[in-house]
Design goal:
about 130 residues, alpha/beta, Nucleotidyltransferase, domain 5, five-stranded mixed beta sheet, 4 helices, about 25% strand
Length: about 130
Amino acid sequence: MKRILGIDFGTKRLGFALGDPMLKLAVPLEVVELGDKDPVKLVWSMVEEDGYDHIVIGTPLTSDGDSTDMSLVVDEFAKSVKSITGLEVTLVNEHLTSKASDQLADESGSGRHDDSLAAMLIVQEFLNEIDDSK
């Protein structure tokens, strides 16, 4: 695994981040307003353009780890992404990433929610988990 694309999925926008397993580091990339864009095709074009080999998507589970209505939508999105890209897709519980990304935004002075920061935290959680499993 060389390049990981992290996604904070939303119905209005997607936040993206890059993960590097060798450095065990994630960085925010961009936020894309969906409008009438197909989110699966958007991910496909990013994979084709930038050469990712793994995708990590945040899924909003409850604090007990139970599914929510939105996590079911994310599951379908993840299946579609896996089907169109042929890449391994991992779901990571994003239960606290929005709060944490808002705190990072406040600390940086921007003070506004940034979905790419949430995606970065999702990828970092994944990198920490794979590192801990070694």
